[in-house]
Amino acid sequence: MRELDAVDRGILTVLERDGRATFARIGDAVGLSAPAAKRRVDKLVADGVIAGFTAVVDPAALGWGTEAFVEVRCHGTVSPAELRRAWRDVPEIVGAYTVTGPADALLHLRAHDVAHLERAVERVRDEANVAATDSVIVLSRLVPHAG
């Protein structure tokens, strides 16, 4: 990946705050014309620095208002690829990470309610490599997701 200069970083800052910012607004923020800002954004996309554009939707608006983090400990050594395969078809998992510490992985789950969450955690536990899980349910989000 290429080195980012101050203009690239400024463009990314604007887009992280508002993914719908116009090229004129982006250009104003970093000292470029709108066409020059568009060329820089296009280059950031082509280089893979910007992986895509998306709408950030409140999960509660879609009925997925229950959220939890699940620490997973595995039997023996399990590769990240194996864990990815095991959980890729669990729609309640919205994030999965390998981590340091006593857990092997940390999962971020969303569900309609606690009963739905329990069924999802049971599917995670059903994976042959899973030895144990510890779950915490989110009570409130203190810092909003930035995008």
Describe this structure in words.
With 147 residues, the chain is α+β, with helices and mostly antiparallel strands. It has 2 domains: 6-46, Arc Repressor Mutant, subunit A, CATH 1.10.10; 59-137, Lrp/AsnC effector binding domain/regulation of amino acid metabolism (RAM) domain (Alpha-Beta Plaits, 2-Layer Sandwich). The protein contains 5 helices and 4 strands; from the N terminus they run αααβαββαβ. The chain has helices at residues 6-17, 23-30, 34-46, 80-87, 114-125; strands spanning 66-74, 93-98, 105-111, 130-137. It has a 4-stranded antiparallel beta sheet with strand order 2-3-1-4, with helices on one face. A hairpin with a 6-residue loop joins β2 (93-98) and β3. α1 (6-17) crosses α2 (23-30) and α2 (23-30) crosses α3. The longest helix has 13 residues, at 34-46. The radius of gyration is 20 Å and the shape is elongated. The two termini are 21 Å apart. The relative contact order is 0.15. The mean pLDDT is 93.
* DSSP E strands, number: 4
CATH superfamily name of the largest domain? Answer: Lrp/AsnC effector binding domain/regulation of amino acid metabolism (RAM) domain
Give me the side-by-side strand order of the main sheet. Answer: 2-3-1-4
What top-tier CATH class of the largest domain fits best?
Alpha Beta
Number of domains: 2
Shape: elongated
A few lines on this structure:
With 147 residues, the chain is α+β, with helices and mostly antiparallel strands.
